[in-house]
Every structure is written in C-alpha cells, then in structure tokens.
Design brief:
Strand content: 25-35%
Structural class: alpha/beta
Radius of gyration: 19 Å
Bound molecules: 1-O-pyrophosphono-5-O-phosphono-alpha-D-ribofuranose
Order of helices and strands: EHEEHEHEEEHEHEHEEHH
Helix content: 25-40%
Shape: elongated
Largest sheet: 6 strands, mixed
Number of helices: 8
C-alpha cells in the first residue's frame, strides 16, 4: 500500500481528483462523512485527510509515503522530504502587506505579524532589516489595522481579504503552489510505485498547461 496524506479542504479535493484521473480512484472518499482514511485494495493506495499544515509532518516521519502540501509549508517548516513535483494548483503568493499609508522608514524595528515566522525572518534577514515577529494563528489582516504590527507576511490568493480590509501588497516574497512530497525511506523501498504515481500526475499537470 502507498499511504497518501491529502490536505483537508478545497485543495485536497482537487488533488484527489488528479489522483482519481491518474487511475488511483477511491470513490468512498467522496461520501460526505467524517471518516479520515480511505483505501482501494485494487489500486494499492490508501488516502487520509490531514490538516494542510500537518501534511509534511506525516510524510517526514513516514506515517505517509507521499503527500501534497503548499510550498508555503515547505518553506516554513523545511521538512526533510523529497519535493518531487509542482502540481501547478493551489496557486497564490507569499507577500508583505500593510495599510495603504504604510511607508518603511528602514530605521525602527519593523513589527511583522504572521503565521510564517521562519519565512518572514529569512526574508528580512536577506534584506538586513531588523524585525520583531509577532506570531499569530489566523486573521492576520487584523494586526496592522489595530496597530499590533506595521505589516503582515501572509498568503494572498485573490487579494479580496486585503482589499476588504483596506490593506495592500507591499512586496511579493515568493509564488506558492501545491507540491507532491515524498518520504525519503519510502522512496527507496517503494520507488516504482511512487515514480508511477508521480509520472501520471506529471502528465496531467502538463496536459493542463
Ligand atoms: C488565507 C490567508 C488570507 C486569505 C487570502 O487565510 O491567510 O487571510 O486566505 O486569500 P484571498 O487573497 O483570496 O482573500 P485563511 O482563509 O487560510 O484563514 P486564516 O489565515 O485567517 O486562518
């Protein structure tokens, strides 16, 4: 069996559809229930739904052989896994955003609110800019509005959340998309099966281009 960690939610459904189209279908997964594990003995694949930010933990520790998660998670947690394929879905960008009136004086310590402390630290270290990271877990856009921070480092997809809160992108840090990741030991022992899955998924990515 190949164990596959899928990110719960909209992205996960898209990813499952790509697996199904590749011949690794598991129809019971589409039934609306609270089950978390689904397997198809015929195709030899077992799927489980995990919180998107936990996918890389399952894969790094070998509870899953492969998984799909956003590049943001890989940059933030730097898990020891192989990144095998860009699935070209779940596209968005990691960006710095602030109030429209924000102007960086480049002198005082910049207060940065984010879920992505590692990405923010590395980004500003590369610019030799001194920052104070304020780690939040959600609704990051509130921070500059309430003067908890000067800027935020967060995911921007459509830009609607920023717009509706009178914020704007200051600069883009990096583009983000979903990646197929692989446990290193699993790749050694299940090379053929994993390469087959990656090959099928790659063909779909290319046909969607
Ligand atoms: C993400 C991100 C932004 C929003 C961006 O939040 O943190 O708030 O989506 O999307 P948009 O550009 O299309 O508006 P998420 O929905 O994951 O919630 P949370 O971070 O507030 O928990």
């Amino acid at each position: 069996m190949i164990n596959v960690a899928l990110p719960k939610g909209r992205l996960g459904e898209k990813v499952y559809n790509m697996f199904a189209k590749s011949g690794y279908e598991c129809p019971s997964i589409l039934e609306n229930n609270r089950k978390l594990i689904f397997e198809n003995e015929r195709t030899g694949v077992r799927f489980f739904w995990v919180k998107p930010s936990d996918v890389s933990i399952y894969v790094e520790r070998g509870a899953a052989d492969i998984g799909v998660c956003g590049k943001d998670i890989l940059l933030e947690y730097e898990p020891d896994v192989y990144e095998m394929l860009d699935l070209n879905i779940g596209k968005c960008r990691m960006a710095v955003a602030g109030k429209k009136s924000f102007h960086d004086d480049n002198v005082s310590t910049l207060r940065v609110a984010t879920k992505f402390a590692n990405i923010a630290r590395k980004y500003y270290a590369s610019k030799c800019r001194d920052i104070d990271v304020i780690k939040l877990n959600g609704s990051i856009e509130l921070a500059p509005i309430l003067d908890l921070s000067d800027v935020i480092v967060d995911i921007v997809e459509t830009g609607t959340t920023l717009k509706e809160n009178d914020l704007e992108v200051v600069e883009t840090i990096v583009p983000i998309s979903a990646r197929l990741i692989v446990n290193k030991a699993s790749f050694k022992f299940k090379t053929k099966e994993i390469e087959n899955i990656a090959k099928e998924l790659k063909a779909q990515v290319e046909s969607n281009d």
